[in-house]
Please model this.
Amino acid sequence: MRTQVGIIGAGPAGLLLSHLLHLRGIDSVVLESRSRDQIESTIRAGVLEQGTMDLLTEAGVGARMKAEGALHHGFELAFEGKRHRIDLTGLTGHSITVYAQHEVIKDLVAARVADDGKLRFGVSETSIHGIDTDTPSIRYRHEGEAYELQCDFVIGCDGSQGVSRASIPQALRKDFERVYPFGWFGILCEGPPSSDELIYARHERGFALISTRSPNVQRMYFQCDPKDSVENWSDDRIWAELHARVDSHDGQTIVDGKIFQKNIVGMRSFVSNTMQHGRLFLAGDAAHIVPPTGAKGMNLAVADVRVLTEALNAFYVENRTDLLDSYSTTALKRIWRAEHFSYWMTSMMHRIEGASPFEQQLQVAELEYVTTSRAAATVMAENYVGIAGAHA
Ligand code: PHB
Model:
């Protein structure tokens, strides 16, 4: 089989790229190791920057997001018994939408299927060949048969554990990494929202986040030991922990409900520089990871794809390679801004084991500043909505 662009991975990056290329008349094939059911039900974060919303809308895949997602104009920072609002729209003119990543995935899969896009689920033994040549290929197995997909370009959107990044020789790549000594315990529960806006809470017992999914389903998280197991946490213990961390602020209480999903995620910051070699380009988690505190993961994947679409389009329409050559450099500007922001917000909000009383007071001092100085609040807001930095 032959295509112009071979895409490995049907997450937000791979599916959106395939859809945007289709709109420009460029052919692609998406290969995914999991099933359609799995990718459409994997629970991930759910904050979309306005730039992400605009891109999905322009690409014709934003209708359900607009109808079912919740538009938020601010969020709250809770610490030392008080809540403080960051007025995103007032400070930046931008807002965010809370809409789960797997819903974006469903919308993108539906669009690709409607356009007769080539999606292969359940592929295995995927390997990449000839990236130093003009005729790279992807070999894989599907339903018991071995295949080779010939393409002009291979795009690795297969996440942090995929084969793509490992196909760039280690000697040509530098990896930057920080592993945090804590994780997030996430729950989905039935019930009404506890708040009109997201609440990020710093408490001496640890961080907590109150988010939402719909008027009847809520998403909440609390900082935990990344090696802990969900079996150790009964519903009662979870609610006691969330109440202890969030309720004390201004006497508001969160609303309990029936918990129907529990998971623990580790927290890591990671950047691969470079994100390209020969005819192989990486996008999304294959190239970089952020801790979820800044809600940047999917937004960065979408931003990579936006740059890559323009670069591939310039290649096919004008025979230009300059945008492809500068892809990594262009994408990494936004990525490093988001890496810093996610690290900053994580460091400011979490309980750090072994931190001295002095260091704990510095966290509070920083939060005080962010919530009382318009300039500092604007730094927070610009980063949160995704317009900070020269790339804006
Ligand atoms: C979520 O709703 O899952 C969510 C929201 C904000 C974050 C992370 C996750 O920073």
Q: What stands out?
A: Residues 5-70+97-176+269-350 form a domain with the FAD/NAD(P)-binding domain fold (CATH 3.50.50.60).
